[in-house]
Amino acid sequence: MIDQSTVLLFITVAIASAVEATEALTILLASGITRGWRSTFEGALLALACLAVVVLAIGTALIQYVPLYILRTVVGTLLLIFGLQWLTKAILRQTGFKAAHDEHDIYDKEVAALSKEQQGIRGQRDSLAFAVSFKGVLLEGMEVVMIVISFGLATQSGNQLVTASLGALLGVGVMVAIAAAVAGPLTKVPENYMKLGVGCLLTVFGLFWMGEGVGVEWPLDDVFILVLLAIIVLATVGLIAYFGRVHERRLEVAAH
Amino acid sequence: MTTDNSGSKVWKAVRGFFAFWKDFLVGDSPVLALGVVIILCVAYILRGSAVWAPTAAVILVLVLIAFTVWQKTWTRRCAS
Questions:
Q1: What is the ipTM of this complex?
Q2: Is B30's Cβ below 8 Å from some Cβ in A?
Q3: What are the residue ranges spanned by the domains of chain B?
């Protein structure tokens, strides 16, 4: 029987992976179109292989040698920091205090930068395309790896590494399919709403596991995750409404 | 000379490693990281109380979110 926290875990990892995949795909598209697809794919595949090795090596080692309460404390603390970073940035973007993530702008800048460099010899590996795609996928993927390992190890039902990995693969797979269909940067993806959602979920899971790790007894056990989610979502909506008005007032003052 | 070069490369790699993790965990919001550590300590101290530990943890997280957003709105100009 699949419990609610497993479903929430799967959804959270899938959305987080989709957000990071959107950013990585923008870099891959720019590299592939300007420098060629072969070296771009090779760099991306090597980075994905490295990330998979990190998940398997670190994940398996941690579950075998580290006590669960220590894992939950560390993992919860990391997830809470990640979640709050995502959430506060998404609130600032939603209210207008921070510029929205513009994939088209990032794509144009990447294309301009890559076009300046001299093209490699046809038939040989383009080291620039390889390096750019490798670095892009590795850096964007590292956060997903941390989330997959954290969610995979800290759940009530024990090792959920496979569930978390499947969630990550689904998120990435959906974005790759959309990118292949539109053959351009994923500008229509509601990235900020996804980041808001993931920020709320990471904050909730992080707080819950960090608390469990240090011995806090949450009322209602696992069901309290939903209560926490409701509290964080309501607070987020309230903050967006309040700071959105603050932003509007500042714009009005600046206009006069 | 070779030892100096390899020494500086190792030192550069070590600094790069810590810079990566600092950027990863702290980023541009040291207040968030510090706040989470404070919440962790408070939850640990109050862990014996079934009422105060969860209540304090939730309230502190809400205060941390609100404070961080408020702080950033004062340090940033409007984006649009």
A1: 0.82
A2: no
A3: 2-75
